[in-house]
Amino acid sequence: IGVDRGYYTFADGSGVSRYNLVTASLLTDLLVYMFRNFAVMPEYLASLPVGGVDGTLTRRMRGMSAEGVLRAKTGTLRGITTLAGYTVTADGETLVFSILVSNYLGSVRPRRALQDKIGDILTRFSRQDSYEELE
Questions:
Q1: CA 124 – CA 111 distance, rounded (Å)
Q2: Residue 130 — pLDDT band, cuts 50, 70, 90?
Q3: Measured at the alpha carbon of residue 114, what is the angle toward residues 69 and 111, in degrees to the nearest 5?
Q4: What percent of the chain is modeled with pLDDT above 70?
Q5: Which of 17, 38, 45, 57 maximizes the CB count within 10 A of its CB?
Q6: What are the residue boundaries of the structural domains of the chain, listed by start?
Q7: Is the CB of residue 100 less than 8 Å from the CB of residue 82?
Q8: Which pTM was predicted?
Q9: Does the structure show a pLDDT above 80 at 69?
Q10: Residue range 25-128 in CATH 3.40.710.10
């Protein structure tokens, strides 16, 4: 996708090394690239877990607008939780997002709950509404 190697570091192919470093912006750029690449997009999108339905998102976003709509990949290490993928807004627009939370102490639960809430807000988003209506 034409990204300068100075903007990321991959220490392994599995994603479980603490030496893998990437920004949310770069991850979002990659997701946009994958979405626009017709040759791989259908299979790639189908491989992502769906909020409240399957995979690592089975128990997340239940009862929210994002349930059954949001598709994303999760990532978790001690002190790190990520959620990156796609959702479809109330207007039918596809949004790409990357939420990376790191260097926290304590339970991952409130961080995941925040990620889920952000995903839900993005799913309910409409260019016709104001932000206050989404809270």
A1: 20
A2: low
A3: 120
A4: 96
A5: 57
A6: 25-128
A7: yes
A8: 0.89
A9: yes
A10: yes
